[in-house]
Here is the input.
Amino acid sequence: MKILLTGASGFIGHHILQVLEKQNYEVIACCRSPEKLFFKSESTRILQINFPNMTDQTDWLLHLRNIDVVINCVGIIAETKGQTFETLHTQAPTALFKAAEQTEVKKIIQISALGADESAQSAYHLSKKYADDALKNLNVDWYVLQPSIVYGDGAQSMALFHALAALPVHALIDGGKQLMQPVHVSDIAATIIQCLKPESPSYLTLPMVGPKAISFKRLLEQLRQRLGKKPAPAFSLPGGLAQRSVFIGKWLGEPTFNAENIAMLRRGNSADAEPISQFLGHPTLSLEQQLLLNPANQAERWHAGLYFLRPLLRLSIAFLWIWSGIVSIFFFPPEQSYQFLAASGITGSAAPFMLYGLAVMDIILGIATLSTYRIRPLILFQLTIIFLYTLTITFTLPEFWLHPFGPVLKNIPLLVTLLVYLNLEGEKP
Here is the structure.
């Protein structure tokens, strides 16, 4: 059996690919970033595809030759400039499904989302539903799997929940009474394997949920306990106020903090677990047994504690550069600045050019840090600049090392701060 798997480098797709390889299926693994697929068997072929560019049926025909099954795992939780719900959740999958029907693919398995139903209101859920509906109208065996929140190794949503649990105070939207029913990623993969069996009934829409629901409030409490922390005080945050406070998400650089996701949280995310239990032949894995009863390891505790510090680091670094430039231009006496420059051998007409040029550069560096434009090379450039500043002052004004306010000494923790941020930014998905 030859399988075309889209979204193979994503969280769910990654786990499905591993299981398919263990079962010795021949897989065409489609993804935008092949370097993320650091494992692959001899029976797997990687196909680099930019999903937003695959919105026409003809775009897929060449890749579907001799394919027996299509599994679509592509999905995003928040839109960006180059990735929209309409393109990634509706247009590209619909084109893929129609092309698969045209090339006589035997089965299509769509990873949708719990809530992509007749009551859907959010753009996220509606975009999934449109693709689901398009698939159901085709002359092909189909499965629409609708997972609740998926957890397991590499799950971004559970990483966010751990970070929220680690906060010293819990702001619970509408009191945190919303029910959710997280499902383990291995249950998703097991369901895929079951769908591939010839005897499995098709034309199925399956809610993918854990055995029982848990309130958001209780989930945060248990995750906090798992992190080894004492209970945190909590207060209820009106849902309407939370949806009007989404600017905080942009400020923190957390795309999941938006009005639509808050609305989806308020709706809840649970369903009857019996259909998926019957399909698998056994209950899905328990959240308590798989996660909540197991103490967090050191990496998880560090990640939870640093999750919201990363954006604060970015803001503080940006403020440092911008304020340094403003002070140099408007507040610090230029005569003193020229004296410092003269000690470095910069005098005459070159002095104001250097003074104000470096000040403008500082402001530009701060603004670029705020925008996160090419952040890794930007931080490396900042490290270089601060190192050169420190080296120059060491040779031209060595007495600054003995200054009680430590104007040069402070560069040491600043360099370390930039190195820490550089590594934290490297963990960005």
